[in-house]
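DM from R.C. (forwarded with permission)

"hey, sorry to bug you on a friday — could you get me a structure for this? deadline for the figure draft is monday and I only need the backbone to look sensible"
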Amino acid sequence: MQVFKFGGASVRDAQGVRNVAGIIQQQRPNNLLVVVSAMGETTNALEQLTWAYLRRQGDQELIWQRIRAYHEQIIRDLTNKPEAFEPVYSLFSEVETMLNQEPEPHQHPDKVYDHLVSYGELLSTRIVNAYLNQSGLDSYWVDARRLVRTDDSYREGKVDWEQTCEYITDTLADLLETGVAITQGFIGSTGEGYTTTLGRDGSDYTAAIFAHCLNAEGVTIWKDVPGVLNADPKWFDETVKIDQLTYQDAIELAYYGATVIHPKTIKPLQNKNIPLYVRSFLHPQETGTAIGQFEKHLPIPSFIFKMNQTLISLHPKDFSFIAEENLSKIFGQFAEYGVKINLMQNTAISFSVVVDHRPERLARLMPNLQEDFRISYNEGLELITIRHYDEKTIDRVLVNKKLLVEQKSRYTVQLVVKDL
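My reply, with the result:
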């Protein structure tokens, strides 16, 4: 069996949904599991809705109405029989019921976040499923929250693999023999039934989870690019498509922030030697990039750009050395508040990290660090990672940039820069 994953860009409008349906219909109608992300920028909009709801801001209703109107327009553009999309309207009612209630006191905001933001995937999959059935292709809507079990690390749920694989195989093994199954990326639930998410852009990871548990023949991620490129075309000219990648190189690129693949995607596939394909939903006839057990490593330099980074430097107030005790305390607090470190560097009496600028998490972390450390930081920075670099590639990315931090290993260089 095969697993397909379609991201938000592929289903951002009615034409995108039709295109996805066409790709599915060109494949085998049975033994296919399709994982779908939220439509377009819906996850970002639902994030805004979550914070407006928690803070009881006046624009809460306006944000929600925009989200609802966006999905209703896609339905109108797809069909003149909206009754087939009744499950979508039931989801609208669920959200509106919640928004009309006061947030529970002392409820963790990340728990509320996961519950509300999950509706992006629930809405998109209901729409895709209904359209496929209208188009004459038998498809089944499957609730990923009933199958993917995690702990209660909201916004970064850790998968309980044993339970998850048991639920997935029991539910889907026979179902996939008779039709296509449509399910959600990014979401799961705790043992108590509370919705969790697997981290932003976690739908790739979901596809890998299902493939691992079902012993799939392969996973295809359908993107708006022709395959894995050596740089993001938004930030880099003259990109080159990479035809084949080893699992190791794919893991390295994902770890350093290559947006084409979620960092957790590769390992579940590598463990069972399941190939991963990255192909274009705009040109589905093209082969794209294959990731698997190949011998040759990355043939060209690859560039990864992470924007809106913050450089934080910690200095012990008692001028003690940065030793194991300090590092244990620092890492523990970063983990507790869910702040991922993208780069770290230390001297005898200072420790510096580069992190994504996430104000709500940093605001909770900083006061705790300030008890033991003096803190200085710079915002609005860029982290550039070059895999298989040389001096020419470094010089190329430093044009009109001021270099703040440089860190090199044998195959990788990381540069923290700001615009001149």
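R.C.: lifesaver. Residues 302-419 form a domain with the VC0802-like fold (CATH 3.30.2130.10).
me: no worries. DSSP finds 13 helices and 18 strands in the chain.
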